[in-house]
Amino acid sequence: MLSVIQGDITKLSVDAIVNAANTSLLGGGGVDGAIHRAAGPELLAECRTLHGCQTGDAKLTGGYRLPARFVIHTVGPVWHGGKNREPELLASCYRRVLEIATQHNLNSIAFPNISTGIYGFPKELACTIALETVRTFSSQQKTSVSEIIFACFDEENYRLYQQKLAN
Ligand code: ADP
């Protein structure tokens, strides 16, 4: 089941929330900063043991002081005009998160709007890629994930997801 909410992803009691991290996995601004603040310093300590993450890939940690049990950190592409495999790398983020969630037998996952903040990915295209990728994954792969929430922070993303989910 796919759903959309507007609000702060750090408040959600799901099996895993997804972090739009950077390749260092050592924290940053936007949703990454909010997740580290809410989870507490133990999250950064675990992230230090992971030695970073490549763009388009994902890694799982505990959720510590978050209501979510786990955080799946993924690194979206920085938008450089669209000719540097940005769409393919963004799709890979959604797919890798779902693969890792499936490996850990997780049921409920909440995604932020990866790459659409500081990384500058056009929001409408990012929304289309997110929905297509999770729908394709859910229909083609055997997965434990039965509930996917798109946690939109800004009004523009929230409207886009509501519109596109209705179709
Ligand atoms: P990126 O570097 O991947 O663009 P950002 O954190 O800058 O990551 O932005 C990704 C998305 O996360 C943006 O749509 C931004 O509005 C949103 N965001 C920021 N803070 C939160 C939060 N606490 N919960 C959910 N989404 C958030």
From TrEMBL:
Coiled-coil segments on the chain, per record: none
SMART domains in the record: A1pp
Domain Macro residue range list: 1-167
One Pfam family it belongs to: Macro
One GO MF term: O-acetyl-ADP-ribose deacetylase activity
PROSITE patterns the UniProt entry points to: MACRO
UniProt protein name: O-acetyl-ADP-ribose deacetylase
